[in-house]
Design a protein that fits this description.
alpha+beta, Aminopeptidase, 2 domains, 7-stranded mixed beta sheet, 34% helix, 27% strand, elongated, binds coenzyme A
Length: 331
C-alpha cells in the first residue's frame, strides 16, 4: 500500500507532473486510443498558474516526490477537476480517490457547490470509475456555460473521437456534515454580478418554458450594473455559498417592482424563495411602498400565489406572456 500524503504543488514539482501525465496517458494505448496517449501532456508554463494559485495538489511518496496530481479550475460555482493523474507505477492504490476527496473538501472550504469534470464514458478508469466515486453524468441541457466552453475546446482539439461527457458530484452531503444550513440574506457585491447571472441562467433553464431560447442565447441574461450600485440586489446564502438572489426596484407610485428572483435548481422548494420574498417585503416597507408587483412567468405563478401574491392580468414580456401579480405590504 502506497503511503499517501497530499500537499500543494510547488514550482519545482511541475516538471515531474508533466512526466506523470505522460506515463498516465500511456494506459490509453491498451484501448487503442493512441490519439489520447499522444496528446500533449502540457507544459510547466501551463501548470504554473495552478501552483501559483494553490489549485494544484500532489500526492507524494516517502521522499516527498510527486506520484500523482490534481488540478482544479473554478467553473460556474463548482470546483472543476481539470486533471487528475496518477503515475502508471502507482495506479490502482487509491491515490486518485484520495485526490478527489481532497478536491471535495477544498471545494467545500471554498463554499463551492459541486465537483465537475469531463471524461470518456466508455473507458473503465474514467466514467465508470467516477461513477463509483459519486459522480453522475450531466445531460447536455444541464451543462453550465463554462462546462459547455470546456467541451467545445475538447471537441476542437479532436479528443471527441470517443464518447465524452460532463460529470458532476454534488457536495451537499459534505455540507450536511457541517451542520444545519441556515440561509441568510445580504446585499450583493458588484463582483458577484457574473456569478448571479450564471445562477439566473441555471435557474431559468431548469424551470422555465423559454429554456431553449436561453440556451441558444445565454448572453440574453444581464443584470444591470446600476442595480448593484443602488444596492437593490440581495443574495441568499447558506453554508455552501450563494443559493439565490432577488432584485427589488425603488418604489414608483407606492409599488416596488420585483425585477428578479432566482434560486439554485438543487435548492428550489426548500424555502429560499419565500425568504427572499420576506426580505423584499421588509425592504418595500422600509422604502414606504404599499405593495410589491411582479410579472410572473407562467411556471412561477404557483410559487407567487403560495407566498401571497394575487392578480391575473396577462402582459407581454421579453420571452413569453406573463401574469402581473401583486402583494400588499402593510406599513
Ligand atoms: C420561483 C422560485 C424563485 C421559487 O423559489 P423556491 O426557493 O423554489 O421557493 P420556496 O421553496 O420558497 O417555495 C415557497 C412556497 O411556494 C411553493 N412552490 C415553490 N415553487 C412551486 C412550484 N413550482 N409549484 C407549486 N408550488 C411551488 C413551495 O412549495 C412553498 O410552499 P410552502 O411554503 O407552502 O411549502 C424558483 O423556483 C426559481 O428560481 N425558478 C426559476 C426562475 C423563475 O421562474 N423566477 C421567477 C421569475 S418571474
Amino acid at each position: 500500500m502506497t503511503t499517501q500524503r497530499i500537499r500543494p504543488a510547488r514550482p519545482d514539482d511541475l516538471p515531474v507532473l508533466v512526466a506523470i501525465e505522460r506515463t498516465a496517458s500511456e494506459t490509453f494505448r491498451t484501448l487503442g486510443m493512441d490519439l489520447v496517449a499522444d496528446d500533449d501532456p502540457g507544459t510547466v508554463d501551463e501548470l504554473a498558474p495552478y501552483a501559483a494559485d494553490a489549485r494544484a495538489f500532489v500526492s507524494v511518496d516517502a521522499d516527498d516526490q510527486p506520484i500523482a496530481y490534481l488540478l482544479l479550475d473554478l467553473i460556474d460555482g463548482a470546483a472543476h477537476i481539470e486533471q487528475v493523474s496518477v503515475h502508471r507505477f502507482h495506479a490502482r492504490r487509491g491515490l486518485g480517490r484520495a485526490l478527489i476527496e481532497h478536491a471535495a473538501s477544498w471545494a467545500v472550504a471554498h463554499r463551492l457547490r459541486a465537483l465537475t469534470l469531463t471524461t470518456y464514458i466508455d473507458v473503465p478508469w474514467n466514467g465508470p470509475y467516477y461513477e463509483r466515486l459519486g459522480f453522475t453524468y450531466l445531460r447536455a441541457d444541464e451543462e453550465t456555460p463554462g462546462l459547455r466552453a470546456v467541451r467545445a475546446r475538447e471537441r476542437a482539439s479532436g479528443l471527441d473521437a470517443w464518447p465524452r461527457a460532463c460529470m458532476s458530484r454534488s457536495l451537499r452531503d459534505y455540507g450536511a456534515t457541517l451542520g444545519p444550513k441556515a440561509v441568510s440574506i445580504r446585499p450583493a457585491l458588484a463582483a458577484e454580478r457574473r456569478a448571479l447571472e450564471e445562477l439566473q441562467f441555471r435557474a431559468s433553464i431548469h424551470s422555465t418554458r423559454y429554456a431553449d431560447v436561453l440556451r441558444a442565447n445565454p448572453d440574453a441574461i444581464e443584470i444591470p450594473p446600476w442595480q448593484f450600485e443602488q444596492d437593490l440586489v440581495r443574495v441568499a446564502e447558506d453554508g455552501d455559498g450563494v443559493v439565490g438572489f432577488a432584485v427589488l426596484l425603488p418604489p414608483v407610485d407606492g409599488a416596488c417592482e420585483l425585477d428578479a428572483i432566482f434560486v439554485e435548481p438543487d435548492r428550489m422548494r426548500t424555502g429560499i424563495g419565500r425568504k427572499l420574498i420576506d426580505d423584499a417585503v421588509a425592504s418595500a416597507r422600509r422604502r414606504g411602498a404599499n405593495r410589491i408587483e411582479v410579472v410572473a412567468n407562467p411556471d412561477a405563478v404557483d410559487f407567487y400565489e403560495r407566498v401571497g401574491f394575487a392578480g391575473n392580468e396577462t402582459v407581454a414580456t421579453r420571452f413569453e406572456p406573463g401574469r402581473r401579480m401583486h402583494l400588499l405590504v402593510d406599513s
